[in-house]
Amino acid sequence: FFELLEVRMADEPTENEVPFGTDWGPIFVYGSMTAHEAWMAAIGRVPEMRVASLRNYGRRAVRGAPFAALSEEPGMLTIGKVVEGLLPWERRVLDSVIDDAFVLVDSVKVRFLDEPEAELLQCHTYWWPEDFEAALEDHDWDFEAFCDQWLEEFVCLCKDKRREFDMDKLDDKDLEKMVLKDRRRKTGYEDELYGSRPATGASLPAGR
User: 129 near 103, Cβ under 8 Å?
Assistant: First the structure.
């Protein structure tokens, strides 16, 4: 059975222990994070992904949410993607995007669809606990339905989580500047104050 990961895996190094450019191993995604738009919003790039299958686990939609949930179901087959090459900070952003109800586990074994004879690959994945099974729909999560109903909102969530991550790294002075800039942008204060952006070489109104 799964070994549940509380804060981090016992054999998973902290960010400071991982050399620059090193990832924390492959992770199997099977729902909203299979969308390229979500990765671009979260980490600014689309990582290497390969289609893979996971046997004896079923995928179901989470009621009223964009997420897919994975749970043990003998005889079922879940198709997803193996993501490789994520840097430590990118994994942290991914963790923040995934709903808190999910648990990170490290013991699922998947097979690449383009290498059916290859050995199974052990991956991390996000698993839905049995305690929350009542929140699941009776049907499979559907990618097309997700794109139609949830993608835009989910992309905004990914952008917000990335911004929160970036803000956490700022000192108080830089954080204050960022907050003030956002406030002015949202209220249109700068447009009211300066009007349209001046052309190159133009001066702002005196005393402003």
Answer: yes
Helix residue spans in 71-208 (DSSP H): 88-97, 143-149, 151-168, 172-187, 189-194
Taking only the tens place, the pLDDT of each residue in 164-182 is 999 888 765 655 565 566 6
Task: Give, in order, the Cα–Cα distances in Å from 204 to each of 130, 138, 197, 208.
Answer: 61, 61, 9, 7
Backbone phi and psi for residue 127, each to the nearest 5 degrees, phi listed first: -110, 145
Residues 65/136, Cβ–Cβ less than 8 Å? no
User: How buried is residue 18: exposed, middle or buried, by Cβ count under 10 Å (0-12/13-18/19+)?
Assistant: middle
Q: Which DSSP category does 100 fall into?
A: T
Q: pLDDT tens for residues 58-79?
A: 999 999 999 999 988 999 999 9
